[in-house]
Amino acid sequence: MSMKTTFGRIAGEPRVAEGTVYAVLFAISFTHLLNDMIQSVIPAIYPMIKDKYGFSFAQIGMITLAFQMTSSILQPFTGRYADRHPRPYALAVGMGFTLAGLLMLAWADGYAWIVTAVSVIGLGSSVFHPEASRVAQMASGGKKSLAQSIFQVGGNGGNALGPLLAALIVLPHGQGAIAWFGVAAVVAAMCLVGVGNWYRVQLANVVRRARTAAGTVAAVSAGRVRMAMGILVVLIFSKYFYIACMTNYFTFFLMDRFGVSVRESQLCLFAFLAALAVGTLAGGVLGDRYGRKYVIWGSILGAAPFALLLPYVNLFWTVALAVVVGLIISSAFSAILVYATDLMPDKVGMIAGLFFGLMFGLGGVASAFFGWLADRTGVEFIFRLSSWLPWLGIVAGFLPDVRVQKAG
Questions:
Q1: Which of 15, 83, 246, 395 has the smallest CB count inside 10 Å?
Q2: For residue 165, which phi and psi values (nearest 5 degrees)?
Q3: What is the pTM of this model?
Q4: How far apart (Å, rounded) are the C-alpha atoms in residues 369 and 57?
């Protein structure tokens, strides 16, 4: 079923379609790809603006912190508001903020303007992610991990494309070429208007659809819910502190340790980010089939041995291990988010906002921390230190089982 057919049929007949609405899932995944492709241009241009403006590693880290904190602080609040007062066209409005920040970044001429521009981009992200996660669950037809992974894999694909396109477009033509990514923001906004049309006519049917398609989950006491949430926060910390080190400083590590060029280092970063995209989709399929707890546990802890080896091998094996780590560790986020919403099914937007906010916020804190530490100890040291983080995945063994039972 094409997206055009889906939107047209629902507009004429506002009855909820049974099953998974893949047209909507692919639409929000595509817009997630465009959104995160734009956002991933920020770390991709770090080597260029560091040389152009003479920034320190600490300043590079603070630029990331400004972007991540803007989105992370606001996301739980926008998600909570969406749970109570859904706004179907908020997705398109959020993309407008992303476009505005992108154009500001293209013409920023100093540190303060760059920080302001990335903060506006972060504001757009704070609107987009919680609301889009709600749409994913509405369109899931009960396959919540798969739906979240389809949505998430778009973001991971965008994160992978951003550095590649930056290497091809921005690095040869300079900072002003960032404005060309505004075309992607306009396309995404137009697509999100279509998603908003579908979303608008679904809102009256959300409760019935959730009951008939998603089923119920095994009862978990309030105390165990709090314990599980605490464990999930630890796992998000482990995963995104490590990924932040890789995303923001892998290019510097490769250039410093192996003497590769900026372009070659960007291609290596693309390989890692592409692996994140593939692993995310696989994690969604496995989570629905075998249980989210086991995917969470195997994902983060399973990446630990490979991450520990990465800082000590030659160039070929460094890139190969980065791909392996990316494939394994990326499968966790969709499972974590859906596991949390299974525990609190009436607060999907707030939970999505909380965990996306944690993802961005911890990533920003990690970037600033590792930038500060790299200035004092060197890039190789921070990679050796961060390689121990995935071992925190062992705490996933203490998560309670949440078994979904189909209704009727």
A1: 15
A2: -70, -35
A3: 0.68
A4: 10
